[in-house]
Write a structure and sequence with these properties.
Layout (H helix, E strand, L loop, with lengths): L1 H29 L1 H8 L6 H20 L7 H26 L2 H9 L5 H25 L1
Helix pairs in contact: 1-3
Protein name: Stage V sporulation protein AB
InterPro entries: SpoVAB (IPR020144)
Keywords: Membrane, Transmembrane, Transmembrane helix
Length: 140
């Protein structure tokens, strides 16, 4: 009986490691990290950034699996939400940029001067949408 549980645990950990490795490779492959390092002129720390992302994913998974409570979680929750929103937004924009969605769309509708306003509008729309979503969740 216990051998069955050990085999299931090994399969689960192996599958989780493979999927997490693929996700981290995808994030790194999108170029989000290298673009941030380039923009902040901290390219010498790129390996530290990649290790930090992998370590953050590992720690978050361990905390999720073992239900480890976060001390002062109510205070840190807005900060976590902010950083998570920034991360997801940057990830989505990097994926869209790799797929060349924006350059093709901008050339097709001949829209060049309003690009900064469009980007600000998208960011504000995402922020307001998330705010309304969480207001509705807290209100219940």
């Amino acid at each position: 009986m216990w051998t069955h549980q050990i085999i299931l645990a090994v399969i689960g950990v192996s599958a989780g490691a493979a999927i997490a490795g693929g996700l981290f490779s995808f994030i790194i492959g999108l170029g989000v990290i290298s673009v941030f390092a380039d923009r902040t002129h901290t390219g010498k720390n790129i390996l530290l950034y990649e290790d930090s992302i992998a370590l953050g994913g590992i720690i978050a998974n361990i905390m999720y699996i073992f239900q480890i409570p976060i001390p002062h979680g109510e205070v840190l929750l807005p900060l976590f939400g902010l950083f998570s929103g920034i991360f997801v937004g940057c990830w989505a924009m990097a994926l869209a940029e790799i797929l060349n969605i924006f350059p093709i769309f901008i050339r097709r509708i001949k829209l060049f001067r309003a690009i900064p306003w469009i980007i600000i509008g998208m960011a504000l729309g995402k922020g307001v949408g998330a705010f309304v979503f969480f207001l509705n969740r807290w209100g219940k």
